[in-house]
Specification:
The structure holds 2 protein chains of 2 kinds. Chain A is α+β, with helices and mostly antiparallel strands. Chain A has a 7-stranded mixed beta sheet with strand order 3-5-1-12-9-10-11, with helices on both faces. The longest helix of chain A has 28 residues. Chain A is 29% helix and 22% strand. Chain A has 3 domains: 204 residues, Aldehyde Oxidoreductase, domain 3; 322 residues, Aldehyde oxidase/xanthine dehydrogenase, molybdopterin binding domain (Aldehyde Oxidoreductase, domain 4, 2-Layer Sandwich); 151 residues, Aldehyde oxidase/xanthine dehydrogenase, molybdopterin binding domain (Aldehyde Oxidoreductase, domain 4), CATH 3.30.365. Chain A is globular and about 85 Å long. Chain A has 20 helices and 26 strands. Chain B is an alpha+beta fold. Chain B has 2 domains: 76 residues, Ubiquitin-like (UB roll), CATH 3.10.20.30; 82 residues, DNA polymerase, domain 1. Helices cover 36% and strands 15% of the residues of chain B. Chain B has 6 helices and 5 strands; from the N terminus they run ββαβββααααα. The longest helix of chain B has 14 residues. The radius of gyration of chain B is 16 Å and the shape is globular. Chain B starts with a strand and ends with a helix. The mean pLDDT of chain B is 92. At the A-B interface, helix 1 and helix 18 of A face helix 2, helix 3, helix 4 and helix 5 of B. Bound molecules: FE2/S2 (inorganic) cluster (2 copies). One FE2/S2 (inorganic) cluster sits at the interface of chains B and A.
Chain lengths: 773, 171
């Protein structure tokens, strides 16, 4: 391998650096109209009157469509209906008689410009009859409260319960039982590019072309075809550069379905680009979850048992297709992490509320790590143990027989190595002495450690969803690689080219990676998400390229009359072993196959194109990404400001394709994790009014808030097999744990337990008692 | 709504358009002049994605009306590379430091940094303050800071080429 492992310059860079990226708002079609949505100002209300006449009359307005118009053109949405025990409500792309969150869709105006469309929104008159909003965890569990959906009796959409081992015995044997309730606030993905699309229905052909900013072009196509009841062969999705997503643009949004329906009704291309206010209010939120835990421990720090009850606030509508119901069981499986627990009991609920829906956000199961790692610190402190010591004591080594209490096979994990390296790198012993000295001076210095595991791709027994790639050797000897991925900053045009170039034996610039045109790429509903690309897209490109290489060598063998086994491909040349003078460019082979196939001996396979499925066969190693983060903070007692003095990442994602890209993924994830603790909150009031509709309310951190992040790679690679593991989500999963642990440690003199994740300066001052809670 | 003429010199080229007085400068640049390198991230002056140089100063083009730019000289990301396609040292430094992922924020950072470059090197801490009017959701900023610091070291095209040659030679 020559390119894999190198921080080669990204293929994407030149166009982005010169302002020639093609993002969704850069698409401009002849005759294109512009859409704006009228959104509900109420969390929960009946629509008693909807008057669109004035808006329709405004010059420049082409159409005003209501929920009823869109209902007539679409099929009701029902997601994950096949998921056992999930009460999946049927819902419409736009509201007809009832709105269910602030930002719900009431009407769509299509006009000559977005300016005019927004003018027309002001002319639509809607009367609402407000209903009791379901806002809190308690509201949602109150069986006397109104049900948000008519076809579901209450607002508990899903409940999962399970027991592993003898939990009662574990608690009976405990020296100490520790109980805590840990709560996360609402956050949001907030890519810098808001959502948007251009729907282009051609009444002549019946083709719907949908220009999307999506993580999954094929998934988008499939959902549009389903809910527009449009033949899928006549739906084409085109996606260019995507300005960030972090999970938000994997789902298909109700606006997508409405927009496509509007284009089909009107018969013209329509662009919709949401503004930041719409985005913050209605695109998607995340992380509003709570976990109540009880831990049974011995006084020497053994973890006998765990009881956990999880609540997930999924907002009003189950996200299409990644409803929150997917996550309780993943959270359960990952909750014990790399530690030995004797027994575990778990209950997980998914609750409907009158708030924005909840698409995946970078590690949507993150609460398992946050709660576990918080709990480790709480337990350590109650027992008077050092938190690193408690972790060491209970951590699996990754032996062949190691299995967590939830049944996860942990052979080969490197958690312990990551912990030791992180502690070593910071010189943990001296750091603790330094902390003592600082405390003596009245300074609030804190250290936080957190270790996580991510199933990317996971152990052999639970690997899911194979992926295809398509590869063609072109007549000029270059390789065209087609992937169903929907990259949005991860640089797949580069990393997959690195994989293909090495697998084929080509210079990097002889490989072109194509994505985002569903007429060319293989079918795959997931696309980019779940930290899958490193393993699954890489694997699919590798096996498919190998196939094409085999075919090319077969043709070369016939042309050169040399056994294929004696041929190699180096730098785009087919080179016979021991006879470099007879080397032949791949282009000559491809030209022969395409232009003069009859010159080849009968029976020669002259097709230089292949599509192969990567099933996970040949993956070596543990399947677990993971690592340890260590964070040192100092808190200003007067202002409540948390300053991060050091942030250390020790991670293991197996073999690294491109170190610069991997480190970028880690830093970006850590930044989001830090942001969720110190700055960001998608706040609602008790009436379900949304309170964070601008960047003055929803605070994204800037260059002055995110610290320098130090990264150390373990890069454990097995003796055999492909071992490139996912790394996209880890930073965001573990950073909140490392940071909140450090904050609680800093606040030790006040004896407080940190059981909320969101800790802005005001909350810190409440915890120190500087201001009343 | 009535339209008014606007004349600007953008990336060295005289252009004119007829726009409604309420049209923002960024919409004028993107829609009328079809220079889509400049991006819109918030339309309320916080994210910096729409930053352009107006008569040499970094401004947020979402907070201005197009008609206010009458007679002004504008520079956008499309005007950074040389006419021969030679990248500006700042572009090279961003590339070499992996200063972006999705690239949506990049035009804004680049134009903010271009204005800073005129004023000469800064300490990392000061630079972080100067960049704090631009938001990036992908990188965690470290690579952007590194990119601009690097660019301070190659601030003339000649220096950039020399640095490039040095990198090339090292390979
Ligand atoms: S778009 Fe102008 S500052 Fe955000
Ligand atoms: S690179 Fe994506 S927002 Fe900065």
């Amino acid at each position: 391998m020559r390119f894999v492992g190198e921080s080669v310059t990204r293929v994407e860079d030149r166009r982005i650096l010169t302002g020639r990226g093609r993002y969704i708002d850069d698409v401009k079609l002849p005759g294109m109209l512009h859409a704006a949505f009228l959104r509900s100002p109420f969390a929960h209300a009946r629509i008693t009157e909807l008057e669109i006449g004035e808006a329709q009359k405004l010059p420049g307005v082409v159409a005003v469509l209501t929920g009823a118009d869109i209902e007539a053109a679409t099929v009701p949405i029902q997601v994950m209906a096949q998921f056992p025990d999930f009460k999946s409500p049927a819902y419409l792309a736009m509201a007809t008689d009832r709105v269910r969150f602030v930002g719900d869709l009431v009407a769509i105006v299509v006009a000559e410009s977005r300016y005019v469309a927004e003018d027309a929104l002001e002319l639509i008159n809607v009367e609402y009859d407000p209903m009791r909003p379901i806002v809190s965890f308690d509201d949602a569990q109150d069986s006397t409260a109104p049900a948000i959906f008519d076809d579901i009796a209450d607002n508990v959409l899903y409940r999962s319960t399970s027991t592993h081992g003898d939990v009662d015995a574990a608690f009976a044997a405990a020296d100490t039982v520790i109980e805590e309730t840990f709560t996360q606030s609402r956050q949001a993905n907030v890519p810098m590019e808001t959502r948007g699309a251009v729907a282009d229905f051609d009444p002549g052909t019946g083709d719907l072309t949908y220009y999307a900013a999506t993580q999954s072009p094929q998934g988008c196509r499939f959902q549009l075809a389903t809910y527009l009841d449009h033949p899928i062969d006549r739906v084409r999705v085109l996606s260019g550069d995507v300005g960030g997503a972090f999970g938000l643009k994997g789902p298909v949004h109700r606006e997508d379905i409405s927009l496509a329906a509007a284009s089909r009704i009107i018969g013209r291309p329509i662009k919709w680009i949401e503004d930041r206010n719409e985005h913050l209010q209605a695109s998607g939120h995340a992380r509003e979850e709570q976990m109540q835990v009880e831990a049974a421990v011995t006084s020497d720090g053994r973890l006998l048992g765990l009881r956990a009850r999880l609540l997930i606030d999924q907002g009003a509508f189950p996200c299409l297709p990644y409803a929150a119901v997917l996550f309780p069981n993943m959270i359960r499986d990952l909750l014990p992490g790399p530690y030995r627990f004797g027994a575990m009991q778990f209950e997980g609920l998914v609750l409907a509320t009158n708030k924005c829906w909840v698409p995946p956000y970078r590690g949507p199961w993150e609460i398992e790590t946050w709660v576990r790692e918080r709990l480790m610190d709480v337990v350590a402190r109650r027992l008077g143990m050092d938190p690193a010591e408690l972790r060491r004591k209970n951590m699996f080594d990754g032996a062949e027989e190691d299995r967590s209490i939830s049944g996860q096979h942990l052979a080969g994990i490197t958690s312990r190595e990551s912990l030791e390296r992180a502690l070593g790198r910071i010189d943990y012993g001296s750091l603790r002495s330094e902390q003592e000295a600082a405390r003596a001076e009245g300074r609030l210095l804190g250290v936080g450690i957190a270790t996580f595991l991510e199933a990317a791709p996971g152990p052999k027994e639970n690997r899911m969803f194979p992926e295809d790639a398509k590869v063609r050797l072109e007549s000029n000897g270059h390789l065209l690689v087609m992937t169903p991925q929907g990259p949005h900053g991860q640089g797949h045009e580069t990393t997959l080219a690195q994989i293909a170039a090495d697998a084929m034996g080509l210079p990097l610039d002889h490989v072109r990676v194509v994505h985002g045109d569903t007429r060319q790429t293989p079918m795959n509903l997931i696309g980019t998400g779940g930290s899958r690309a490193s393993t699954w897209a890489s694997g699919s490109v590798m096996v498919t390229t190998r196939k094409v290489r085999e075919k090319a060598l077969g043709i070369a063998s016939a042309m050169l009359e040399i056994d294929a086994g004696d041929l190699d491909i180096i730098d785009g040349m087919v080179v016979p072993a021991g006879a470099p003078a007879k080397a032949m460019p791949l282009a000559a082979i491809a030209m022969t196959a395409y232009l003069a196939p009859e010159s080849l001996p009968p029976g020669t396979d002259n097709h230089l194109e292949a599509q192969e499925t990567f099933t996970g066969d040949g993956i070596g190693g543990s399947g677990w990404s993971g690592g340890t983060h260590l964070c040192v903070v100092e808190i200003d007692q007067d202002t409540g400001r948390v300053r991060i003095l050091r942030y250390i990442v020790v991670e293991d994602c197996g073999q690294i394709i491109n170190p610069a890209i991997v480190e970028g993924q880690i830093r970006g994830g850590v930044a989001q994790g830090i942001a969720g603790v110190l700055y960001e909150k998608a706040a609602y009031d008790e009436e379900g009014q949304f309170m964070a509709g601008t960047f003055m309310d929803y605070l994204l951190p800037t260059a002055t808030e995110i610290p320098h992040i130090e990264i150390d790679h373990i890069e454990s690679v097995p003796v055999e097999g492909l071992d490139i593991r996912g790394v996209g989500e880890g930073g965001a999963i573990v950073a909140p744990a490392a940071l909140t642990n450090a904050i609680e440690d800093a606040l030790l003199p006040f004896g407080v337990t940190v059981n909320e994740q969101y800790l802005p300066p005001g909350r810190i001052l409440e915890l120190t008692g500087a201001i009343p809670a | 709504m009535s339209r008014r003429p606007v004349h600007v010199k953008i990336n060295g080229v005289e252009r004119e358009g007829y726009v409604e007085p309420r049209k923002t400068l960024v919409d004028f640049i993107r829609e009328d002049l079809e220079l889509t390198g400049t991006h819109v991230g918030c339309e309320h002056g916080v994210c910096g994605a729409c930053t352009v140089l107006l008569d040499g100063e970094a401004v947020r083009s979402c907070l201005m009306f197009a008609v206010q730019a009458e007679g002004c000289e504008i520079r956008t990301i499309e005007g950074m590379a040389g006419p021969d396609g030679q990248l500006h040292p700042l572009q090279e430094a961003f590339r070499d430091n992996h200063s972006f992922q999705c690239g949506f924020c990049t035009p804004g950072f680049m134009m903010t940094a271009a204005a800073l470059l005129e004023e000469g090197p800064l300490s990392e801490e000061d630079l972080r303050h100067e960049l704090s009017g631009n938001l990036c959701r992908c990188t965690g900023y470290q690579s952007i800071v590194a990119g601009v610091m690097d660019a301070f070291g190659r601030s003339t095209p000649a220096a950039g080429q020399a640095a490039d040659a040095a990198t090339e030679a090292a390979r």
